[in-house]
């Protein structure tokens, strides 16, 4: 670590840390970032550029870093690409690799691209590879993707945990620099609930890089420590370091990503790696600071050419000299502050080349007083060096604008400052307006769209005392707006207070530069001054078009360092003012966020709730095969002795037809409708007539939408004059309940009726088959099960196994059937009791697949399978359910629409394949003539198709135009292997007289 | 009076998360007159204030909506409570539905209770905004719950039974880092 300063900085020099970069073992100190440790080891070269594979070095010391993207590797699965080395905290054993180089950083094969670079200007890909179109996928794209691209994502599942937290506060302060700290102190003192977050590991922002400033008469480090302590001791304040506010969403909803373990050498296995905070803030204070701009000159991308403020941060905060011999290129007074601090750190200042014509700010005066070599009226003609800068060629700009070469300096680092750009990203994301501040030379926040305000550098306020005071005022304003009393305060501060303003755009160059060299505007996307000029020559005027054509600002850094420079260049060459050129949109995230933190805890088995029925564990123990129905797990079939699904379903179906089967029907939606107008409510809601239904009886109900199409169905039982038990489809439960509540609250407030969901109150066991009564007779008390006392569609209350029973005599199989409803806690016990009692009859548990076959054999529809949202009751063959004398019901008018009564509508019919062994594909198209050339009109489609063991053949249902008029006709089901002839039949395949149900 | 035949979801008890005993639960729906009569019959004043719960002895009434209350009583009170309510409300329009088994209850307790719940509940649970005695239907991640703050560090969660395993699993996931 040859380049450490003798002392100082916020690193802990007693705690050495070893790490590897590209396999090289290096040493750093606790408190270092990967970037500061690499620089201390003299490593600037960290990357190859995106398009030209040029060697690139560390440019910045923060989130804006365009070049130093690295992959940090913990193990095969923990392998994070595209991290900014300036933000990676060092830990013992850290393994980092450079990206985008092959076979090694110093010898990069792709750099030959650089030789071809005159042939790959902006828009090159668009122009060249678009023709012939087919060649793009096959020929051009694969090698381009391989050569370009950023780091490589790991292939293994992410083993880390990710947490999430919802949090509310009165005042959220984003950025813990001087303005943010002052704002948080003010709001907290007023009693507000405050959150202060900052992307860095330490709170303090720019204060962390101050050399000998003071605040309120205290050294800045002392003041900072006590400010953080004050905030930390307040239970209403939450301090969140290592936390990036990445997105600003409507209604002051802000997304924060907290990095919890990435800086730890050995994170605890139970610790989440990151936490996504979803903040809902009454008021927001944005104190996001400002980002220094590079200067644009030929060779400005050579490793060792850095931002001046970064050089200062590395010296003051990290005790790291970025070089031994520095040339400072000043487009802003901020460069002088860097020069002074580097000189204090022991760096030789070879020259301060100011690109402006004069300067008399405090920083320049201090530098002059310190005897540093200053000249004005400069420009930079180029840099020398291969993998690292070795010199800089300066030029002079004459008063007429002509440029002549002047002097060449040997150096090992070039520090540049083009002035600072306020970080208005979050304000802009919140739809706040931006305004051009002529005095500052940048866009600053204007009218806010949210309850938010900006303070400090991010709104163009600079100088330490002014920034602190501005923060305090914003914190007080936010607290006041949130209902607390606060007034703000002023601060006394002593510091150099260099003017951070500058002039964006490219430095002046000779008319015909020799040799020609690239001057980079956007480092990460390799966009040069020539690309911007070319875009304008080709007629692009809008900055949005120039951005897309050149890709400037479109890299992962979103142009944090390049945006304003590109704008200024476009403005200069089109003779417009910068604000007249416009501004591109800031989008979230501010810096990249992992997919893991968005996914949070919703992964694997816990991605969604898994709803289980009372028979679930029983079914699992017996090898039941499950299917997902909405969020429910339902047993699809119960294979025995290695059966496949077909064999199991055949066996289950035959058991129901010949003896008895049992089925868990608990998932059906259930709604209890209570009140003196309950029958009237159902009359209006369902198509059927409910007034005529006697208590103790049940009826099959159909629900339509306003447009007359079938929406849901289910059996509804009248428990008492004023009480109905409504069942819905499993998937329709929530929406039918919502629709009922909607009508009750908004349309039919005249009705005295209320609804309550009872879906989960009841466990339901369907016992179906000729022996169903015999099984239940062993268990049920208090109910006469005889056909006379309890006919089909009757309801009775009693007990089963000593617990309350609501028994429905209903059938979805066409056999004698009962549905046993018991309070859900008893579901498992009753399920097992029925299974035991049924043993002597060979009772067979069956799943949803057999249930589907059984109902299809009877022609019973399933809403959503045999109907598709465009079927009327008549289309579905259930028009008989409509109460013809009712004045109104939902969908009644809809049904009278001409299209719904026109001839030729598709109607549900049965299909029998001529070959009984052929099972049709559900969804297959139906045509009325075989083997005709395509295109050929379809007349319908298959909705349900099964193998029927009871019938010994295949059966199917289909929606066919004029279907019921085609009974007996042969039509065809179009399939890739040839059209299949089928006969149109009644959809009731089994027991058409319905004799079996009434026994 | 616990019923040995009842088999609610099997979920492990932790110091901070405990399944609460089976209970009698009714959803009461009706107007102000019905609420008044029900208050007398049930022995708990049905809250007229939104999102507030009242407790009297072992019984509680939770405001869920302008015409909807959740009544909770010990498991053994079912028959008597039902009969008393039916008698008092005979001539007043209302609805009472037994949902004792529809949902199960858990208690989340301890200094980190609020934190654990905020991992999945988007409401502001700070005591200044969600004081003791406040209750509401809300969500815990992807499941609906009824949340009731019964003490400074104690919350009661009423969860539809098939969602309980999910909610408890997610609470345990969030609690992992506290035990780390």
Labels describing this entry:
heterodimer, A: about 1000 residues, alpha+beta, 7-stranded mixed sheet, B: about 180 residues, Gyrase A, domain 2, 5-stranded antiparallel sheet, 4 helices, 10 strands, about 35% strand
Mean pLDDT of chain A: 94
- Report the β-strand fraction of chain A as a percent range: 25-35%
Largest interface: A-B, 53 and 51 residues
- Main sheet overview of chain A: 7 strands, mixed
CATH uppermost class of chain B: Alpha Beta
The gross shape of chain B turns out to be globular
Q: Note poorly predicted spans of chain B.
A: none
Describe this structure in words.
The complex is a heterodimer of chains A (about 1000) and B (about 180). Chain A is α+β, with helices and mostly antiparallel strands and about 1000 residues long. Helix content of chain A is about 20%, strand content about 30%. In chain A, helix 7 runs parallel beside helix 8 (about 335-345) and helix 12 packs across helix 14 (about 565-575). The radius of gyration of chain A is 38 Å and the shape is elongated. With about 180 residues, chain B is of the alpha+beta class. Chain B has a single domain (about 15-180), classed as 2-Layer Sandwich (Gyrase A, domain 2), CATH 3.30.1360.120. In chain B, the strands form 2 sheets. Chain B has a 5-stranded antiparallel sheet with strand order 1-7-10-9-8. In chain B, strands 3-4-5-2-6 form a 5-stranded antiparallel sheet, covered by helices on one side. In chain B, a hairpin with a 2-residue loop joins strand 4 and strand 5 (about 70-75). The mean pLDDT of chain B is about 95. The interface between A and B is large, with 53 and 51 residues.
Structure in a nutshell:
The complex is a heterodimer of chains A (999) and B (180). Chain A has 999 residues and is α+β, with helices and mostly antiparallel strands.
Protein topology:
The complex is a heterodimer of chains A (999) and B (180).
Chain A: E1 12-21, E2 24-30, H1 34-40, E3 45-48, E4 55-57, E5 69-73, E6 79-84, E7 94-98, H2 112-115, H3 124-128, H4 133-147, E8 161-174, H5 178-189, E9 194-197, E10 214-215, E11 218-219, H6 220-233, E12 237-240, E13 243-249, E14 253-259, E15 272-286, E16 290-292, E17 305-307, H7 308-316, E18 325-330, H8 334-344, E19 348-354, H9 362-369, E20 374-375, E21 378-384, E22 391-397, E23 403-410, E24 413-417, E25 420-422, H10 425-429, E26 434-437, E27 442-445, E28 452-454, H11 464-481, E29 493-494, E30 520-522, E31 527-528, H12 529-537, H13 543-550, H14 563-573, H15 578-581, H16 595-599, H17 616-621, E32 625-629, E33 632-637, H18 645-658, E34 661-664, E35 669-674, H19 678-685, E36 698-704, E37 710-720, E38 723-728, H20 733-746, E39 754-757, E40 762-768, H21 772-777, E41 780-781, E42 795-800, E43 803-808, E44 817-823, H22 827-837, E45 844-845, H23 848-857, H24 892-895, H25 898-901, E46 906-913, E47 925-927, E48 940-948, E49 953-961, E50 970-974, E51 980-985
Parallel strand pairs in A: 1-7, 8-9, 8-15, 9-12, 15-28, 17-24, 18-19, 18-24, 19-20, 34-45
Antiparallel strand pairs in A: 1-2, 3-4, 5-6, 5-7, 10-11, 10-29, 13-14, 14-15, 16-25, 21-22, 22-23, 26-27, 30-31, 32-33, 34-40, 35-38, 35-39, 36-37, 37-38, 40-44, 41-42, 42-43, 43-44, 46-49, 46-51, 47-48, 47-50, 48-49, 50-51
Helix pairs in contact in A: 5-6, 5-11, 7-8, 8-9, 12-14, 18-23
Chain B: E1 17-19, E2 23-30, H1 32-42, E3 53-56, E4 59-65, E5 68-74, H2 78-88, E6 94-98, E7 103-109, H3 113-118, E8 135-140, E9 143-151, E10 154-160, H4 161-179
Helix pairs in contact in B: 1-2
């Amino acid at each position: 670590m040859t380049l450490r300063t003798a002392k100082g900085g916020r690193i802990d020099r007693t705690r050495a840390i070893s790490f590897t970069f590209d396999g090289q073992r290096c040493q750093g100190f606790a408190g270092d970032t990967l970037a500061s440790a690499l620089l201390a080891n003299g490593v600037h070269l960290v990357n190859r550029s995106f398009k030209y594979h040029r060697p690139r070095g560390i440019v910045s010391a923060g989130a804006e870093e365009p070049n130093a993207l690295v992959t940090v590797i913990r193990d095969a699965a923990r392998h994070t690409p595209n991290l900014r080395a300036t933000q990676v905290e060092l830990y013992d054993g850290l393994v980092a690799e450079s990206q985008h180089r092959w076979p090694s950083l110093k010898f990069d094969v792709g750099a030959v691209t650089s030789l071809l670079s005159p042939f790959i200007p902006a828009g090159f890909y668009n122009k060249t590879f678009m023709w012939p179109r087919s060649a793009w996928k096959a020929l051009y794209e694969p090698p381009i993707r391989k050569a370009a691209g950023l780091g490589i994502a790991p292939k293994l599942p992410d083993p880390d945990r990710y947490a999430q937290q919802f949090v509310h506060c009165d005042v959220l302060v984003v950025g813990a620099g001087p303005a943010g700290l002052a704002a948080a102190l003010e709001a907290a003192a007023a009693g507000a609930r405050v959150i202060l977050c900052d992307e860095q590991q330490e709170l303090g922002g720019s204060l962390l890089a101050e050399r000998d400033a003071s605040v309120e008469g205290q050294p800045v480090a002392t003041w900072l420590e006590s400010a953080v302590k004050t905030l930390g001791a307040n239970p209403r304040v939450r301090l969140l370091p290592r936390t990036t506010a990445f997105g600003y969403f409507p209604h002051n909803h802000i997304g924060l990503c907290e990095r919890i373990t990435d800086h730890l050498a050995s994170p605890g296995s139970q610790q989440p790696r990151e936490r996504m905070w979803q903040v809902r803030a009454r008021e927001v204070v944005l104190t996001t600071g400002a980002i220094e701009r590079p200067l644009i000159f030929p060779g400005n991308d050579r490793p060792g050419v850095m931002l001046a403020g970064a050089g200062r941060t590395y010296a003051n905060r990290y005790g790291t000299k970025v070089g031994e011999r520095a040339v400072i290129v000043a487009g802003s007074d901020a460069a002088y502050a860097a020069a002074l601090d580097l000189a204090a750190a022991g760096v030789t200042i070879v020259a301060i080349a100011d690109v402006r014509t004069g300067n008399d700010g405090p920083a320049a005066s201090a530098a002059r007083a310190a005897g540093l070599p200053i000249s004005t009226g400069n420009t930079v003609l180029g840099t020398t060096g291969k993998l690292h800068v070795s010199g800089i060629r300066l030029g002079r700009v004459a008063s007429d604008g002509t440029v002549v070469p002047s002097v060449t300096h040997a150096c090992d680092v070039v520090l540049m400052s083009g002035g600072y750009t306020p970080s208005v990203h979050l304000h802009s994301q919140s739809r706040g307006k931006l305004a051009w501040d002529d005095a500052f030379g940048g866009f600053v926040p204007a009218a806010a769209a949210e309850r938010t305000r900006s303070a400090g550098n991010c709104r163009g306020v600079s100088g330490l005392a002014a920034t602190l005071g501005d923060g305090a005022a914003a914190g007080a304003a936010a607290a006041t707006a949130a209902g607390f009393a606060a007034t703000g305060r002023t601060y006394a501060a002593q510091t150099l207070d260099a003017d951070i303003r500058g002039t964006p755009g490219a430095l002046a160059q000779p008319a015909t530069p020799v040799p020609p060299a690239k001057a980079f505007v956007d480092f990460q996307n390799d966009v040069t001054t020539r690309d911007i000029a070319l875009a304008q020559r080709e007629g692009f005027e809008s900055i949005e078009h120039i951005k897309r054509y050149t890709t400037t600002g479109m890299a992962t850094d979103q142009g944090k360092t390049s945006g304003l420079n590109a704008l200024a260049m476009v403005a200069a060459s089109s003779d417009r003012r910068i604000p007249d050129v416009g501004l591109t949109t800031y989008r979230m995230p501010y810096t990249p966020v992992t997919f893991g933190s968005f996914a949070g805890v919703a992964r694997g088995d816990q991605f969604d709730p898994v709803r289980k029925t009372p028979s679930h564990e029983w079914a699992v123990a017996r090898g039941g095969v499950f299917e997902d129905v909405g969020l429910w797990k339902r047993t699809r079939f119960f294979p025995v002795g290695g059966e496949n699904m077909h064999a199991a379903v055949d066996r289950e179906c035959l058991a129901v037809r010949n003896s008895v089967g049992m089925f868990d029907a608990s998932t059906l939606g259930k709604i209890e409708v209570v009140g003196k107008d309950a029958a009237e409510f159902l009359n209006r809601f369902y198509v059927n007539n409910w007034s005529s239904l006697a208590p103790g009886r049940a009826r099959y109900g159909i629900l339509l939408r306003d447009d007359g199409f079938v929406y849901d169905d289910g059996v509804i039982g009248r428990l008492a004059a004023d009480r109905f038990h409504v069942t819905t489809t499993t998937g329709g439960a929530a929406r039918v309940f919502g629709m009922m509540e909607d009508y009750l609250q908004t349309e039919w407030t005249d009705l005295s009726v209320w609804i309550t969901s009872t879906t989960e109150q009841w466990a339901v066991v369907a016992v179906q088959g000729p022996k169903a009564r015999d099984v239940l007779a062993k268990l049920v008390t208090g109910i006469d099960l005889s056909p006379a006392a309890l006919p089909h569609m009757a309801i009775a209350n009693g007990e089963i196994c000593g617990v309350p029973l609501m028994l429905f005599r209903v059938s979805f199989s066409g056999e004698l059937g009962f549905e046993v409803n018991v309070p859900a806690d008893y579901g498992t016990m009753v399920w097992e009791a029925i299974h035991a009692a049924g043993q002597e009859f060979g009772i067979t548990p069956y799943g949803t697949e057999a249930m589907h076959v059984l109902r299809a054999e009877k022609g019973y529809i399933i809403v959503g399978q045999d109907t598709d949202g465009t079927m009327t009751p008549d289309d579905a063959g259930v028009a008989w359910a409509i109460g013809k004398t009712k004045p109104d019901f939902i969908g009644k008018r809809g049904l009278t629409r001409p299209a719904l009564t026109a001839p030729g509508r598709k109607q549900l019919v049965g299909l029998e394949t001529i070959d009984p062994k052929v099972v049709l594909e559900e969804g297959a198209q139906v045509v009325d003539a075989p083997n005709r050339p395509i295109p050929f009109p379809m007349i319908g489609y298959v909705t349900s198709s099964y193998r029927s063991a009871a019938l010994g053949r295949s059966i199917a249902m289909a929606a066919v135009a004029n279907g019921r008029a085609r009974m007996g006709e042969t039509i065809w089901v179009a399939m890739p292997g040839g059209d299949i002839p089928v006969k149109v039949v009644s959809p009731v395949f089994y027991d058409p007289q319905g004799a079996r149900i009434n026994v | 009076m616990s019923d040995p035949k009842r088999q609610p979801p099997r979920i492990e008890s932790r110091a901070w998360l405990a399944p609460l005993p089976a209970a009698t639960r009714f959803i009461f729906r009706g107007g102000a007159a019905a609420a008044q009569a029900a208050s007398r019959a049930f022995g708990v004043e049905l809250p007229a204030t939104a999102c507030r719960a009242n407790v009297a002895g072992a019984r509680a009434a939770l405001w869920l909506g302008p015409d909807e209350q959740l009544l909770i009583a010990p498991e053994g009170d079912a028959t008597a409570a039902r009969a008393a309510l039916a008698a008092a409300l005979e001539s007043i329009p209302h609805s009472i539905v037994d949902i004792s088994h529809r949902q199960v209850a858990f208690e989340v307790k301890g200094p980190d209770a609020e934190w654990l719940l905020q991992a999945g509940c988007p409401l502001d649970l700070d005591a200044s905004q969600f004081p003791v005695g406040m209750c509401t239907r809300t969500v815990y991640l992807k499941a609906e719950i009824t949340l009731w703050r019964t003490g400074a560090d104690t919350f009661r969660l009423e969860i539809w039974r098939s969602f309980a395993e999910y909610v408890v699993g997610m609470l345990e996931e969030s609690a992992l880092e506290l035990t780390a």
